[in-house]
């Protein structure tokens, strides 16, 4: 199978952001069998990894699953390949946000009054930059 340049960029960034390599997964599905929120997912956790392996990024962008994931780490504890699927889900969310929104947030663009800045939780600000800025 020949993957596009954008796929390689996506996977390289995912690996860099999460420290996980989706290609280590051998699709045993133990993660999906233990996930407490699969009933609400449109792709099972092991299918998300399969889609990553196959380069089906458009389908992943449309999927509800990465947003449903509760980051409970049950899958990571069960995985015989020591893959941290919760981190991969976070990586996919991050990639999708960047894909949809671009790098639209920069400190120079912030138009907050001193009163608003005072009320804004520092954590919210930091995680916004983490999600929206490269
Ligand atoms: S438990 Fe691990 S190896 Fe098995 S399908 Fe899930 S991520 Fe892949
Ligand atoms: S971390 Fe996400 S995918 Fe893994 S078991 Fe928990 S809810 Fe399911």
How would you summarize the topology of this molecule?
Blueprint (H helix, E strand, L loop, with lengths): L4 H14 L11 H5 L10 H10 L2 H6 L2 H4 L5 H5 L6 H17 L12 H6 L2 H11 L2
Question: In words, what does this structure look like?
Answer:
The protein has 134 residues and is mostly helical. The chain has 2 domains: 5-102, Fumarate Reductase Iron-sulfur Protein, Chain B, domain 2 (Orthogonal Bundle); 105-134, no CATH class. It contains 9 helices and no strands. It has helices at residues 5-18, 30-34, 45-54, 57-62, 65-68, 74-78, 85-101, 114-119, 122-132. Helix 1 packs across helix 7 (85-101). The longest helix has 17 residues, at 85-101. The radius of gyration is 17 Å and the shape is globular. The structure holds iron/sulfur cluster (2 copies). One iron/sulfur cluster is lined by residues 31, 35, 37, 45, 69-75, 85-86, 89.
- Helical residue percent band: 55-70%
Contiguous uncertain segments of 5+ residues: none
Q: What is the straight-line distance between the termini?
A: 30 Å
Quote the CATH topology of the largest domain. Fumarate Reductase Iron-sulfur Protein, Chain B, domain 2
Mean pLDDT: 85
Residue share in β-strands: under 5%
Cα radius of gyration in angstroms: 17 Å
Largest sheet: none
Shape: globular
How many beta strands in the DSSP annotation?
Answer: 0
| Proper CATH architecture of the largest domain | Orthogonal Bundle
Count the DSSP helices: 9
Give, in order, the helices and strands: HHHHHHHHH
- Report the CATH C-level class of the largest domain: Mainly Alpha
Count of separate structural domains: 2
Bound molecules: iron/sulfur cluster
- Which structural class do you get from the secondary structure elements? mainly alpha
């Amino acid at each position: 199978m020949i993957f596009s340049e954008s796929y390689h960029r996506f996977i390289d960034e995912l690996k860099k952001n999460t420290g996980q390599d989706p290609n280590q997964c051998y699709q045993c599905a133990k993660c999906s069998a233990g996930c407490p929120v699969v009933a609400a997912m449109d792709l099972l956790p092991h299918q998300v990894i399969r889609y990553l392996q196959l380069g089906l990024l458009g389908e992943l962008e449309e999927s509800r699953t990465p947003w449903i994931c509760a980051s409970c780490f049950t899958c990571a504890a069960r995985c015989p390949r020591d893959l941290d699927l919760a981190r991969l889900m976070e990586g996919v969310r991050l990639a999708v946000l960047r894909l949809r929104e671009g790098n639209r947030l920069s400190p120079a663009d912030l138009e907050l009054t001193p009163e608003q800045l005072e009320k804004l939780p520092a954590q919210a600000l930091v995680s916004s930059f983490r999600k929206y800025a490269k």
